[in-house]
Amino acid sequence: MRSSSATERPGFVWVAPALLFFGLFGLGPVVIVLYLSLTSWSGLGAPEWTGLDNWARLVGDDQVRSSLGITLFLTALCWATQTPMALAFGAWAAGPQRSRAVVSSIFFLPLLLSTAAIALIWKAVLDPHFGMPARVGPMVGFDGDVLGDSTLALYAIAFIVLWQFLPFHMLLYQAAARQVPASLYEAAELDGASPFQRFLRITVPQLRHTIIASSVLMIVGSMTYFETVLLLTNGGPGNATRILPLYMYARGFVAFEMGYASAIAVLLVVLGTGLSLLVVRVTGYTRMTSQREGV
Amino acid sequence: MATDTHVPERDRSGNGAGRPPAGRTGRGPTLRPRRRPGRRPAYAAGVGAALWLVVVTVPLYFLVVTSLRGSGDYMSQGPLAIPETLTLDNYVNVFQVGFPGFLANSLIVAFGAITLVLAVGVPAAFGIVRSRSRAVATTFSLFLLGLAVPAQAVIIPVYLLITRLHLYDTLIAVILPTAAFSLPISILVLTSALRDVPGELYEAMALDGATTWQVFCRLVLPLSRPGVVTVTIFVGLNAWNNFIFPLVLTQSESTRVLPLGLWAFQTQYGTDVPGLMAAVLLSSLPIFALYLFGRRHLLGGLAAGFGK
To answer: Which of A57, A254, B125, B244 would bridge with B191, disulfide CB 3.0–4.6 Å?
Structure first.
């Protein structure tokens, strides 16, 4: 910067209120949850120090293990379905055609509905008595109870998550794809590259920053599947869809074992942040300097 | 960033006039200079998009049609059948089971969270962009770190804080954490809006002997408007759709927000699917209005925050 101003630059006092507020309700709780994981607390009265008891229990808890497995499977499934589709649709929607603009504005509609609304719509659509599978199912010898089937329920949730979040990630890719220099496509076109080759060789590499950002958001966002699962299946049938955040909620706010639930919460924080960092590391995001190499 | 990418595009359309665009119909010389020209259609993506269009619209069609169907008709007709008679009874019923109260609560929470985020977020963004202090730089990285903290994982300590502050079962209890967890992205959007302000403007004000406060009021506030609009929409959506904080921080009907109201409706009147769909549709109408008003800003802001 070449500023040579006599006017004072803003100091720490300008960021202090935001930091204080975020510290209290955002970062503070991360520290407190760590403390609570070392206590026994029913939600009333004062937490009682119990050391590593909750952690010992956590390690031996089969429920945690199965919930962890379901969580990772669901997160992976959602990532593997959303990323390629969002990338393809985003690049497609970045095109100049009027029809694409109209179609993508319809794609964005689920963004306007709350998670609760989406879960309730799909619950009605998938209703085993009056919903769509009830009509279609018998034709293929299926009773139509999608959410009552322990395998199908998990795939149904992944599908509903895709329905809900695809437009958001598509939006990210669309915006980024519009910034790819047209000269790259021009050169590829002169070389006779097909649309698919251009997508694979230009769009995807050019959007790698966005792919990482979108993946990280998906991993952190996989916690929000909690609401979808709570409203659709409440973890059932059996424990088939009981993801870790739901198990934490059940331990904490249904069984009132807040201390043990906090230990699960710490696991969630570590998992979410750890996976995000892993994505960033593996893809070498921090080493990248320019998205415009070779332009 | 945006300006330098447009230049080659404009050049490109100049070149493109020299030779016909490959295999594309309906595309004449009226080409808009900002758009990328000359690509052959991607049929695979087109077919995929058509399929997804069906997947998106069928549940939405179901939502609208079912909300207009009589309860009896819902049981007897197919879920996607075109209804023989349409009725607004479901909407009337929804208004009789507390919907206006839930709506008011959701509006209060959204308004409170937006106000809080902007009140602390805009000065913070100004500080982050213009300050040279080390502490400010550290603060910014703390906010970036905060991006990775999932709200779901900290509901227990937030519950502890709220009960200790004697705010349990109030709307303030919902506003505080909702605003806090919207803050990292909001600050990211606001800082990237302010970073585009040329340094010369600050220097000009400095020459006039303006104080930092005057710079903030006369320069930063007006120029951060696009960012403010984006943040308003983002935080508003967040607050409107928020489920987990109201779920664990409130319990009575007088503090119930819309998403919880929908859930309660489903638990109480589970068989009244048309009524539930009417409630779902009504709860989404304000967001549709917001989308129409701020669509361009919303899309632009999201791109600014993440696309770089």
So the answer is: B125
The answer to whether residue B190 sits within a structural domain is: yes
The answer as to whether B56 is a domain residue is: no
Angstroms from B26 CA to nearest CA on chain A: 10
- Give the relative orientation of helices B273-306 and A115-125 as an angle to the nearest 10 degrees: 130
The architecture CATH gives domain A73-255+270-287 = Orthogonal Bundle (1.10)
Rounded-to-integer distance, Cα A122 and Cα A228, Å? 10
Q: How many domains does the structure of chain B reveal? A: 1
pLDDT value, residue B302:
52
Task: Tell if the CB–CB gap between A209 and B308 is shorter than 8 Å.
Answer: yes
- The reported pLDDT for the residue numbered A208 is 85
Is there a contact between A112 and B284 if contact means CB atoms under 8 Å apart? yes
Q: What is the pTM of this model?
A: 0.83
DSSP result, B203-236: HHHHHTT--HHHHIIIIIHHHTHHHHHHHHHHHH
The pLDDT, as a whole number, for residue B13 is 39
- The pLDDT tens digits for A39-84 are 999 988 889 999 899 999 999 999 999 999 999 999 999 999 999 9
Judge contact between A203 and B299, C-beta under 8 A.
no
- Domain membership of residue B292 (yes or no) is yes
**Range from A201-210, A258-267, B123-132, B161-170 carrying the lowest mean pLDDT:** A201-210
Q: Residue B197 sits in a domain of what CATH number?
A: 1.10.3720.10
Burial per residue of B38-58, b for 16 or more beta-carbon CB atoms within 10 angstroms, e otherwise? bbeebeebeeebeebeeebee
- Name the band, by pLDDT with cuts 50, 70 and 90, for residue A267: very high
The domain in which residue B248 lies consists of 100-257+285-302
**pLDDT over 90 at A255, yes or no:** yes
What's the gap in Å between the CA of B111 and the closest CA on chain A?
17
User: Does B4 reside within a domain?
Assistant: no
- Joined together, the tokens standing for residue B9 give 């595009």
Partner residue facing B127 (CB), from A15, A112, A261? A15
